[in-house]
Amino acid sequence: MVHFPQEQLYQDVLRLVRLEGDIADLEVEGEVPAELDGAFYRVHPDPQFPPLYPQDQFFNGDGMVTMFRIRDGRIAFRQRYAHTDKWKLENAAGRSLFGQYRNPLTDDSAVEGQIRGTANTNVLVHAGKLFAMKEDSPCLLMDKISLETDGYTDFNGELTIPTFTAHPKIDPVTGNFCGFGYAVDGPLTEACQYFELDPEGRVVRKADFAVPYYTMLHDFCIAGDYAVFNVSPYHSDWKTLEQHRPHFFYDRALPFYLGVMRRDGDGSDMRWFRLEPSVCGCHVMNAFQDGTKIHFDLPISDTGSLPFFPEKDGRPFNPQEAITRLHRFTVDLASNSDEITSVEPIGRMPGEFPRIDDRFAGRPYRHGWMITYDFDKPYHGPPGPFAGVINSLTHYDHQTGQEQSWWCGPDGALQEPCFIPRSADAAEGEGYLIALVDDHVRNYSDLCIFDALNVAAGPICRARLPIRLRQGLHGNWAGADKLAA
Ligand code: V55
Ligand code: FE
Description:
Blueprint: E1 21-23, E2 27-30, E3 38-45, E4 63-71, E5 74-81, H1 85-93, E6 122-126, E7 129-133, E8 139-142, E9 149-153, E10 169-170, E11 177-182, E12 191-197, E13 203-210, E14 220-223, E15 226-231, E16 234-235, H2 238-242, E17 249-250, E18 256-262, E19 271-275, E20 280-281, E21 286-290, E22 293-301, H3 319-322, E23 325-332, E24 342-345, E25 351-356, E26 367-372, E27 392-397, E28 403-407, E29 412-414, E30 418-421, E31 431-439, E32 444-451, E33 461-464, E34 475-479, H4 480-484
Antiparallel strand pairs: 1-5, 2-33, 3-4, 3-34, 4-5, 6-7, 7-8, 8-9, 10-11, 11-12, 12-13, 14-15, 15-18, 16-17, 18-19, 20-22, 21-22, 22-23, 23-24, 25-26, 26-27, 27-28, 29-31, 30-31, 31-32, 32-33
Bound molecules: 4-hydroxy-3-methoxybenzaldehyde and fe (iii) ion.
The site of 4-hydroxy-3-methoxybenzaldehyde has 9 residues, from loops.
């Protein structure tokens, strides 16, 4: 008999799933667009065993990977744990051996020196494999069809850093996988490395840099020839880990920075542009070059948006201050100033989990989507892990300034969407948006497909899962060509 702690972390919306399985042909309401041929992969944290510390973090659950294979109007479901080294060691022991989120000081001595990663943050097909990623550890490779785990890779010894971002960008021109690792000199260090993997998975670029202070360097973006890093005041230190407090705390005294460097350099040209008073921004929508200027689109809030990472000064979490709204940051590489030139709001609906038509990553673009908070709508379910209930899906047209939204109803919430182009040569935004819609009253999830430029019309079809999937993080689409390669 297994008992998980009676914490909110394992109840209601966050009740664990721990289910691996296959459904050949999901029940679908409406018509799945016949031209769709590929797979949507996504991942959620799902602890295999009760945690060593009952007050653990949502972000510390073992990665549970879901694949929705769509073809000929049918949708097949496959779900497997990512068999990280941690998962395998704990599976063999029949219990948890690793302790708190990002805190090796809390581990059972039997696993000292082992890779602590959970592969729970993002999944993406590149170079023939499914990359399952967690930013504190190397890249885990899985088979993109069977979802069996190969194991961690160092890319033929070419990538020796111990960490690998969960938020890569694929350069739409070269097909290169652009990524980075942070804390590459060990936990809590400022050292980072930018890298690019070509479409075959060979390391073709590396550049070393340091962040102004240790932080959760969760996402970044390419912008033409540049790589841009957003630094927000999540910070940590050894004292925090020694005292077994949550790995990150939010320090309002620290500035927000954007770091800009050439992608083809060695990192020595990195420039840090500062913004004070600070803001918090985690997930980038997109960025692009405009002459000597760089524009960087990011949902931001006045304080940390993650309720489970405390304020440094001990004040309680304030959901109003934590709600994120999309803004366009601009820096000018021609200026001698190290200040961020401007920060302008874009759109009206607050939200997070921004997505674009990824064929426009790092380039001037028109269309963006986020899942959003419509505070005017009722909600009948229990609370979730974020600052509010993410009950809507919004399309932002940056060219016309118009936006349109779809509300999922009073019983649930949405998970991060993903854009699927109608065809390889379709115009920007022409295609579909795919997203899980969770019913937290009845405890089911539906995989919904929308017309990306008409989300207000609601889903074209809904694949009805027989279970509710746990709140997830990120995912990506791989077309039939990528599945075959
Ligand atoms: C994030 C998620 C993580 C993590 C660090 O959304 C940051 C941000 C799911 O794990 O470890
Ligand atoms: Fe993320």
